[in-house]
Automatic annotation (TrEMBL):
Pfam families: Bax1-I. It comes from Aldrovandia affinis. Belongs to the BI1 family. One of its GO terms (biological process) is negative regulation of apoptotic signaling pathway. It is a multi-pass membrane protein. It is found in: Membrane. The chain crosses the membrane at residues 73-93, 105-124, 136-155, 161-181, 193-217, 223-245, 257-278. InterPro entries: Bax_inhibitor_1-related. GO terms for cellular component: endoplasmic reticulum; Golgi apparatus; membrane. This is Fas apoptotic inhibitory molecule 2. Keywords: Membrane, Transmembrane, Transmembrane helix.
Length: 282
């Protein structure tokens, strides 16, 4: 797969994070909590809600509500990951499927357009992502499109490399999740740093696209992939703590679809960067 196609897939992850810090900053109750809308939440107490502190009503502080919210998000996430890595396994182990997707790149373009379209609808329309069953239908289409892109990227790599990246991704996700539930460090208070890192990665990705016609630069590719995997690991910790509550920022309990999308994108992009880090030049 060409370097331009690789970077196009990975750079779409930066669009995801750009919406984090811009779209939800505008639509939320205030700059200090761009991810939640306590005025629209049936769980919040109007007498205690604040446009500066985000969702602070008694309902969201109730452990049962938070526990149900986290359970719902992780259930959706597990289904998404099972579908994605099933597609990756199919594209990796089945030679006929591998050859088909490599010779039919228009399907990749169609999946990319579908992915971006459904993603933009889900993150920009609060009503759509909270309306059942429309939200689940769009989420399913979004997941299938992303799974196809992940499978196509994996089809260009050695089977052992793909399985190694899957194993490392799973280990990283488990370690980050356990750390977030045990640590008192608040990643959500570092959103300024996270935004800066995202911009640096995006500019580096654009630099790689422009330098691709002049030849492959191994050390630059390795540095970019390693830094990308690290940054999206930090984003994963950031998003996990958004679900937990009791942090400076938290996610509204109605936003289980958005929460699942955030975690799913982080995990898939960790996998993408690991493929680039451990994969061959081909």
């Amino acid at each position: 797969m060409t370097m331009i196609n690789r970077c196009a897939v990975v750079n779409s992850g930066y669009i995801n994070k750009w919406f984090y810090f811009n779209i939800f900053k505008v639509n939320g109750p205030g700059y200090t909590n761009p991810y939640a809308s306590d005025m629209s939440s049936p769980f919040s107490d109007p007498s205690t809600s604040s446009s500066c502190d985000g969702l602070s009503g008694d309902g969201w502080e109730d452990k049962n509500i938070r526990r149900m919210f986290i359970r719902k998000v992780f259930t959706i996430l597990m289904v998404q990951l099972m579908v994605t890595f099933a597609v990756v396994a199919l594209f990796t182990f089945c030679d006929e499927v591998r050859q088909f997707v490599q010779y039919n790149r228009l399907l990749y373009l169609a999946s990319y357009i579908t992915f971006m379209g459904t993603y933009l609808v889900l993150v920009c329309s609060t009503t759509t992502r909270r309306q059942y069953p429309t939200n689940l239908i769009l989420l399913s289409i979004f997941t299938l499109a992303m799974s196809y892109m992940a499978g196509m990227l994996a089809s260009y790599h050695n089977t052992k490399v793909v399985m190694l990246c899957v194993g490392i991704t799973a280990t990283v996700c488990l370690a980050v999740t356990l750390f977030c539930f045990q640590s008192k460090f608040d990643f959500t208070s570092c959103h300024g740093l996270m935004f800066s890192l995202m911009m640096v990665l995006m500019l580096t990705g654009l630099l790689l696209i422009f330098t691709a016609p002049f030849g492959y630069i191994p050390w630059l590719q390795t540095a970019y992939a390693g830094l990308g995997a690290l940054v999206f690991t930090l984003f994963l910790a950031f998003d996990v703590q958004l679900l937990m509550g009791n942090r400076r920022y938290s996610l509204s309990p109605e936003e289980h679809v958005f929460g699942a999308i955030c975690l799913y994108m982080d995990i898939v992009y960790i996998f993408f960067f690991l493929l680039q880090l451990f994969g061959s030049r081909e």
